[in-house]
Design a protein that fits this description.
The chain is of the alpha+beta class. It has six helices and three strands, in the order αβββααααα. The chain has a single domain, classed as Alpha-Beta Complex (Sufe protein. Chain: A). A three-stranded antiparallel sheet has the order 1-2-3. The longest helix is centred in the C-terminal third of the chain and has 22 residues.
């Protein structure tokens, strides 16, 4: 099987080579992880939230993954800075992320879905960790992006169990 390079646009390649907001944030208000180590795409988002007005002051990420994974994570951190949690929840979609980076090959759309799923997971986690009542704009049921992030993680768990020798199971 040959591996043909994917046709990434110049913006994706630039964000891959020069990601914005890359690195661990020691004073993060909330940290969320999403991904599938079996396929290689893992993201950790760190958000610093101004708790008085629930605004994202700072966003950083760590990624283990392909160019699309790094580029979508990078652009998401740029898109959400200064937004309220509600604005982030309602306005940031995987389609908008994909448009913002100038498009992705269809086999890489899941990277935008994963990035948005991780951000939504962080927002949900924020309210849980702080013991704050869930706002009316936050749906009880998981969004498409959150479900996809969870499905990738469940798949990874299943695959890792299958790959373990019988003695370790």
């Amino acid at each position: 099987m040959s591996r043909i390079p994917l046709p990434y646009n110049p913006k994706v390649m630039d964000l891959f080579r020069n990601p914005k907001n890359l690195g661990k944030m020691e004073d993060a208000t909330v940290v969320a992880v999403a991904g599938n180590p079996a396929c290689g795409d893992m993201i950790t988002f760190y958000l610093k939230i101004d708790e008085a007005n629930q605004t994202i002051e700072k966003a950083q990420f760590e990624s283990y993954g392909c160019a699309a994974n790094i580029a979508t994570s990078s652009i998401v951190t740029e898109m959400i800075k200064g937004l309220t949690l509600e604005q982030t929840w309602t306005d940031i979609t995987w389609k908008k992320v994909t448009e913002e980076i100038g498009g992705l090959p269809s086999v890489k759309f899941h990277c935008g879905v994963l990035a948005v799923g991780a951000i939504k997971r962080a927002i949900r986690q924020y309210f849980t960790q702080k013991g704050i009542a869930t706002p009316c704009w936050l749906p009880h049921d998981f969004t498409f992006e959150e479900k996809q992030a969870l499905e990738e993680e469940e798949l990874a768990k299943t695959l890792s169990k299958r790959q373990k020798p019988e003695a370790e199971k």
